[in-house]
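Table S2 (continued). Query chain:
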Amino acid sequence: MKTTFVYDSDRKVYMTCYSANLHIYGSEDVEITNSDESGEIEENLYIFLTFIQEYETFFPWSVQRILMSIHSPFVPIDPFKEGVNLEKNHNYVVYIQMGEEHLLESPYQTNCLDYEVLWKNNNKTGPRSQEMCKQWCWWNYFKSYAYHDEGLMMLEQPRKSCFNDRCKEDKLNKIRRDCIRNCRLNCKDKISISLNIKSPEVIVMSHKPLYTAMDIFSYIGGLMGCWLGISVWTCTGIAETTFWTFLRFLKQYAKRFRHSPPTRNQLLFRRKHHDTVVF
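Corresponding output:
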């Protein structure tokens, strides 16, 4: 178990926090537990047993309580905001399902950063998550004023803190903002939700590029094929319309020619006396 201290802003004091497999500081590797791949055996990662003693109450007028929170080993949390209050005379069993989400680096919108690789390249020093990176930016900002650890959420040792407004107005604000802006998303964002593994199956969700070079050529080729198809279809339609129009004209002309009366040599005659017809 590792002991850290979290500042309680309501009571203005530091509270003790006991953590297992917490690695927001130092160069230690995370603890690894081998699980049963068949999933037939339910494995217990941790078992905690605690008793609340009345004489340990620091504030006699308040009710004793224990807060518990399950989170990433590399992400500091505020148990007063994210923790769950444990009731007396209760037995808590928590089951977890593990998962990984693989994000894409620049130029994609996620623009993630592999903090584990960065941590190893820096001789196993520095932040190991985006949340810790932002807190380090705040810590470096306030460190320029006095010897205190303002900006860090979970401390290894409680020290002097600075909570007045004059410390937060300085020309170093720009440096702090630039530092926080460089704290990008973690490429491997592991999720742990409980303490007992019922199945060793790991759900992995990977983000793949939407378009590649071959997809672009296929897209352009498809557009050209569609354009040629539309052009051929249009030319064929025009030719077909012209042909049927000409054929209709020929039919109407032939029909008119058949129904017209035949031309004959008109007989010229005149009547003379004695009713004699002279041709």
